[in-house]
Amino acid sequence: MGAIQSLKARAVVVDMEEGVIQHMLKGPLSELFDSQQLLYDVSGAGNNWAHGHHGYGPQYRDALLGRLRTAAEAADSLQGFLLLHSLGGGTGSGLGTYLLGLLEEEFPEVFRFSAPVFPSEDDHVVTSPYNAALAAACLVESASCVLPVENQALAAISSRLEVATAKGTAAAGSGLGGPGAAKSSGSGKPAGGNAAAWDAMNGIAANMLLHLTSSVRFEGTLNTDLNDITMNLVPFPRMHFLLSSLAPLASPKDMAQLAQPRSVDQLFSDVFSREGQLLACDPRSHTCLATALMMRGRLSLNDAQRNIARLRPSLKMAHWNTEGFKLGLCSQPPVGLPYSLLCLSNNCCIADTFSTLMARFDKLYKRKIFVHHYTEFMEATGFDAAAECLNGLIAEYRRADSAGPAPVTRMRPRGLTFL
To answer: Cystine design at 128: which of 52, 88, 225, 315 (Cβ 3.0–4.6 Å)?
Structure first.
């Protein structure tokens, strides 16, 4: 810790349960956080989006704004805000999206990136479909870009890493779906449910964020900043949900031990595989609207262009953007690896994720189960508005997925009857 005592994370840490932050402050990275930038309450939001958004949000508005301004004013060149939160509970979904609205109001010209954790289908929070749907509707309206991750996908990846470690191999990168691949419990929980597995899940998501910001922190021949991502990957304002995939796959602390050196071509194949996604979906079965390939380390633009040409025939690209690949190259590789690759893809398969969420939402809402807890803080019409917003987003992605080039109509010149 001596080497990092002078460093402070430019972060605002918020939780309405005091115990969570106290636990963090007793951990090995406690010295990284400025105690003046912490905000917490005692009782929590009770797994209730409305309590977090309409209760704690207005109550702590001034305190939140003060901490946000302090952090923003300390930046030499403010590029954007990155919101890390869960959608299953009350604080991350409710207060998290309230905070996103504050950022939109106070810093309208600054990019707002969200990295939300979507709950799995058998999440232990029974109201998680309500919380996730209400929060997702806010993300549609207020975020510049959303990079969702899903517990179920992270659990499957961490299970494969665990099996690779147990076998004494380093083939965790993408022995994906192979004969020795581990099966996740399908529950969105790591097999065994131990603390190390949860750490691995968090570490994989953290590794994605480290890769995302590497071009801001290190030099490179073709660095990609947050403006490049939003400009190149968001063709329509509401359709700003990006799939993320990494190769090789491992958490930062296990990278050198678990991530087997991959061939360059294998890296590019891995990030387009179903098993490499941080969201449970299949990108090859749906239309890709735009893609960013963000490389780190000893890779070149020739490597990227050769693999794009190799893989493009197997990808379903939007007919109006068949060359829709944005490339980035950061010279600094991850610790312990010669190179790595992050793929961000605006893919229509995200509609399946939202459809699954809305099916779970409808199962509760058609019986009005638990609604009375929410109407203590909000109008019941908020549920209908969120459902309309997400169903509209699903329809937009479905239309883009099925769209094809318009037929060419031959024009007949006037007066030329012989044509």
So the answer is: 88
The two tokens of residue 182 are 């581990």
25 and 13 Cβ atoms separated by less than 8 Å: no
8 A C-beta contact, residue 21 and residue 13: yes
Q: Are strands 316-317 and 325-330 parallel, antiparallel or unpaired?
A: unpaired
Considering the chain, what is the average pLDDT of its residues?
Answer: 86
Buried b / exposed e along 56-85 (16+ C-beta atoms within 10 A)? bbeebeeebeebbeebbeeeeeeebbbbbb
Sign of CA dihedral 73, 141, 40, 279: negative
How do residues 212-223 score in pLDDT, each as one tens digit? Answer: 998 888 888 888
Cβ neighbours for 230, distance < 8 A, ≥ 6 positions apart: 111, 144, 145, 240
Task: Give me the torsion for CA of 180, 183, 184, 186, rounded to 10°.
Answer: 160
pTM here? 0.87
With cut-offs at 50, 70 and 90, classify the pLDDT of residue 187: very low
Query: How much of the chain, in percent, has pLDDT values that exceed 90?
Result: 57
Residue 282 has, within 13 A of its CA and on its CB side, a CA count of: 4
Rg of the chain over all Cα atoms, to the nearest angstrom: 22
Q: Which amino acid is at 339?
A: Y
